[in-house]
Design a protein that fits this description.
Elements (H helix, E strand, L loop, with lengths): L1 H20 L3 H10 L2 E10 L2 H8 L11 E2 L6 E5 L2 E6 L17 E5 L2 E7 L5 E7 L6 E7 L4 E8 L5 E9 L4
Antiparallel strand pairs: 1-2, 1-3, 1-10, 3-4, 4-5, 6-7, 7-8, 8-9, 9-10
Length: 174
């Protein structure tokens, strides 16, 4: 009985921590309309999941399937009215690899970009960000729910498409 109580308390604590990470409907609306939010990536799904699964199967204890879980305190896209800053991992095929090993992934700061946000008919927002001043032009399509959950589809002219799942937070939060 004691073990069951401990298990239930742990489960409710984890559910409570997960719910705190997201925003409420009013906060989500405010930060999306003001263009002042940070997308925090929790997982990534590469386009070519079959190749990724084949590589991951060689690693002992690795997860199978197409989704790769991320450390949610590390990878993000910060949107402000005057800039978009991205630091995300990339899994997939790159058609133009960088010479320097530290330049992998998706890292950019854009000051010149196009931002379009459309409120959905029933709920949420569809937001599109296209960079104009980055050597590898990026197209970020955010699908944002009222509760702050986000699915990000990222396209580039030098890489295969990749999608990320995560949540929004206000820029002032650390």
């Amino acid at each position: 009985m004691n073990r069951l109580n401990t298990l239930l308390i742990t489960a409710f604590t984890l559910v409570g921590l997960n719910a705190v990470a997201q925003t409420d409907k009013a906060t989500t609306a405010k930060i999306v309309e003001a263009k002042t939010y940070t997308f925090v990536a929790r997982s990534v799904t590469p386009l070519n999941t079959q190749d990724i699964s084949m590589v991951m199967s060689k690693i002992p204890g690795a997860m199978q399937g197409g989704t790769i879980n991320l450390s949610e305190t590390y990878y993000e896209v910060r949107v402000t009215p005057d800039s978009v800053v991205a630091f995300l991992p990339y899994y997939g095929r790159s058609y133009n690899a960088p010479i320097n090993q530290t330049e992998g992934g998706i890292k950019f700061t854009s000051k010149k970009f196009e931002y379009k946000s459309i409120k959905g008919k029933k709920r949420g927002w569809d937001t599109l960000v296209q960079t104009k001043d980055v050597p590898e032009n990026y197209r970020l399509a955010f699908s944002i729910s009222d509760e702050g959950y986000v699915s990000l589809s990222l396209n580039s002219n030098n890489k295969q498409s990749v999608s990320y799942q995560g949540y929004l937070k206000e820029n002032g939060d650390k």
